[in-house]
Design brief:
- By secondary structure, the chain is of the alpha+beta class.
- The protein is 22% helix and 26% strand.
- The chain has 1 helix and 4 strands.
- The protein has a 4-stranded mixed sheet, with helices on one face.
- Strand 1 and strand 2 form a beta hairpin.
- It is globular and about 30 Å long.
Length: 69
Protein backbone atom coordinates (compact mmCIF):
# COMPACT_ATOMS: atom_id res chain seq x y z
CA UNK A 1 0.00 0.00 0.00
CA UNK A 2 1.31 3.43 -0.80
CA UNK A 3 0.85 6.67 1.12
CA UNK A 4 -2.04 7.72 -1.11
CA UNK A 5 -4.12 4.57 -0.54
CA UNK A 6 -7.82 5.14 -0.48
CA UNK A 7 -9.33 3.06 2.33
CA UNK A 8 -13.09 3.31 2.76
CA UNK A 9 -15.30 1.80 5.45
CA UNK A 10 -18.95 1.13 4.75
CA UNK A 11 -20.88 0.40 7.96
CA UNK A 12 -24.43 -0.94 7.81
CA UNK A 13 -26.30 0.08 10.97
CA UNK A 14 -29.06 -2.48 10.45
CA UNK A 15 -26.84 -5.55 10.26
CA UNK A 16 -23.92 -4.03 12.22
CA UNK A 17 -21.54 -5.36 9.55
CA UNK A 18 -18.61 -3.55 7.99
CA UNK A 19 -17.18 -3.56 4.47
CA UNK A 20 -13.65 -2.31 3.90
CA UNK A 21 -12.68 -1.15 0.40
CA UNK A 22 -8.98 -0.81 -0.34
CA UNK A 23 -7.12 -0.55 -3.64
CA UNK A 24 -10.05 -1.82 -5.69
CA UNK A 25 -10.79 -4.81 -3.47
CA UNK A 26 -13.60 -5.32 -0.97
CA UNK A 27 -13.27 -7.08 2.37
CA UNK A 28 -16.20 -7.95 4.63
CA UNK A 29 -15.00 -7.82 8.21
CA UNK A 30 -15.87 -11.05 10.01
CA UNK A 31 -17.57 -9.68 13.13
CA UNK A 32 -20.52 -7.47 13.94
CA UNK A 33 -19.91 -4.15 15.67
CA UNK A 34 -22.08 -2.17 18.09
CA UNK A 35 -21.34 1.16 16.39
CA UNK A 36 -19.38 2.86 13.63
CA UNK A 37 -16.45 3.73 15.90
CA UNK A 38 -15.92 0.07 16.82
CA UNK A 39 -16.09 -0.89 13.15
CA UNK A 40 -13.55 1.81 12.30
CA UNK A 41 -11.11 0.54 14.94
CA UNK A 42 -11.48 -3.02 13.62
CA UNK A 43 -11.00 -1.82 10.03
CA UNK A 44 -7.79 -0.02 10.97
CA UNK A 45 -6.46 -3.12 12.69
CA UNK A 46 -7.44 -5.30 9.70
CA UNK A 47 -5.77 -2.95 7.21
CA UNK A 48 -2.66 -2.80 9.39
CA UNK A 49 -2.30 -6.56 9.89
CA UNK A 50 -3.74 -8.13 6.75
CA UNK A 51 -3.23 -5.56 4.01
CA UNK A 52 0.38 -4.64 4.73
CA UNK A 53 -0.09 -1.15 6.11
CA UNK A 54 2.56 -1.86 8.74
CA UNK A 55 5.22 -1.52 6.03
CA UNK A 56 5.04 2.24 6.53
CA UNK A 57 7.67 3.35 9.01
CA UNK A 58 6.66 5.07 12.22
CA UNK A 59 2.95 4.40 11.82
CA UNK A 60 0.53 2.42 13.90
CA UNK A 61 -3.02 1.21 13.16
CA UNK A 62 -4.65 4.24 14.75
CA UNK A 63 -2.76 6.53 12.34
CA UNK A 64 -4.39 5.06 9.23
CA UNK A 65 -6.83 7.35 7.47
CA UNK A 66 -10.10 5.60 6.74
CA UNK A 67 -12.99 7.33 4.98
CA UNK A 68 -16.34 6.54 6.60
CA UNK A 69 -19.30 6.00 4.29
Amino acid sequence: MNEQSNIQLHFDVLSCRALLCCEGRDYVLPDTYPNREAAEAAAKKFAWEKLGAQARRGRKPSDLAIWLR
